[in-house]
Structure formats: C-alpha cells, structure tokens
Amino acid sequence: MASKFTLDGSIVPRAVTRTADHRAEPRADARSQTAVLEMQGRKHVVRLVNLSDSGAMIILSLIPNIGEPISLKLIGRGQVSGYVCWVRDGKIGVSFAAPKE
Questions:
Q1: Distance between start and end Cα atoms, the chain
Q2: What are the residues facing 78 on neighbouring strands?
C-alpha cells in the first residue's frame, strides 16, 4: 500500500531558527548564475542561490523527493551528479556525489 507521505521537507517542520552556521565549508553566493538541472528525465533551467565544493542551493518550483538523484550542469564546472538532500519554501539543497577537485 502506498503512503500519502513523501520526503519533501514538509514532514519535519523547523520550530527554531538556526543561530549558527555549522556547515563544513563556505558557500559562494551564486544568485546571478543559472544552471540546467536534470531530474526524472527532464531538464529544467534553474537559478542558483549558493554553491560550494560539495553542493548547491537551487530555486525550484517543483517538489522533488529527498534522496532523488539529479544531474546539474554548472557554468565553469560542467556536469555533476548528486541528490536532493532537503526541500523547503521553493528551494532545494543538492549534495554532489563527488566533491569538486
């Protein structure tokens, strides 16, 4: 029997705002950049929010499932594979399968 729940970030609400940045690496502002996201066999032109060696935040009106595999074509970096690690308020977090060398 199929569940009505999906892993799209809405199932666990965040009640407390983060007060510190615990990320392991810096993010570069990428709001002026676009990329091509391939997901479920379809390509979408997306706007980046930020970018790091191991991931990106992307503005996306679709709601993918957490863990869903994606491919992202980035200017200056080429094609990278990864997966959706979070979804919230019209944005998604992508973790790259292999960090930038």
A1: 43
A2: 74
- Architecture of the domain made up of 28-96: Beta Barrel (2.40)
Nearest to 56 by CA among 32, 85, 19: 85
Count other Cβ atoms within 10 Å, centred on residue 34. Answer: 15
Domain boundaries, the chain: 28-96
Question: From CA 94, how far away is CA 56, in angstroms rounded?
Answer: 5
What is d(CA 63, CA 16) in angstroms, rounded to the nearest whole number? 23
pTM of the full predicted structure?
0.74
Place of tokens 């060696």: 53
Question: Could you report the per-residue pLDDT of 57-97, keeping only the tens digit for each?
Answer: 999 999 999 999 999 999 888 999 999 999 999 999 999 99
Indicate the burial class of 51 (C-beta count within 10 angstroms; 0-12, 13-18, 19 or more).
Answer: buried
